[in-house]
Target: LLM class flavin-dependent oxidoreductase
Amino acid sequence: MRFSVFLNARTMTADADKQLIVDLEQHALLAGKLGFDAIFLPDHHFNGYMPVASDSYMFASYLAAKLPDMHFGFSVTSVPLHHPVRFVERINILDHLTKGKLLVGIGSGTTPEEMIGFGVNYKDAGRIAEENLQAAAALWNKKITDEPIELHGFHQGRVLQRIAPSPYGQKQARLMPVAMKESSATRAAVNGWPAFIPAFTPPQIGGTDPLSHVKKYFGNYHTQLLAAGHSDEVVTDALSWTTHSYQCVHLAETDEQAHKEVLEILGAYQEAIDREAAFNAKAESDDANKKTDRTGHALTEDWMATWCLYGSPETVIKKLRAYQEVGIGNILCGTTTGPLTEKRLAYANQTLELMAKRVLPAFK
Model:
């Protein structure tokens, strides 16, 4: 089983952004030193959730120069907010800079506030995402001698020659759909790509039995992947990166200490969420941008059971064995959840150290 670090910190004020970037870099370098497999970044805008995620590809390219053996992933790129040409170009560049160690999570986005900043209505996000992915596939396949590709969707253009640079390998970098919608699971399976495996079923985002949802979505994806006729090498690679995500991972020497500290972490996280809620409400002032699902309070049993992994190293190992048995290949660990204060960073580094010394060896 692989273990990856998800950089998912927040700032509460603009003057905290500078230190956040410094701290995230040092945390990522520590993850590389300790033997984690990948660094994943989200794609967010305007609200203080991962300020560097306003251009995750730029930050990933900077880290890639310092961590040449590390894989880099995105969890996830909000496809409607990216022009297909720029989407493909930037992925190809980063594909070269990482020497093919790239995993591009894709989704339609979750936040109306971010959508309207790019002129996208939330209700149209799914359609635009599909348009953009179809356009991206055509652009990746285009040869210089082919007819021009016309883009007639939300994003428009006319590409005469080709995308430069070309991909690092014979094929484009691996995309990683979220295997919740049937079409997304099929896209991953048919292409031999990994997938994110959800731990809930909308409209309820959370619950006390996340494993049952993981089994359902993984089973559907796995069946389609095996039926797609790929080589053993492609199937093995896809499954090795098929990912179960935790928004908050926190380890301490004892379960009691971990529980006390994770409640402190989630309390600060919820304060940040509450601050952002007022702006989300403004974004949802018309029907075109109304959300259809809601995420519960972070300190509820449902939220913590779905999104958190915490405890002593021994307890965490026991919890993860069940996901290993299902067939999950990669555990994505949100280690910097919430505002990244000095104390929060110390907790994050504590988690990395304990995982590297006592959890990772149990799964290698």
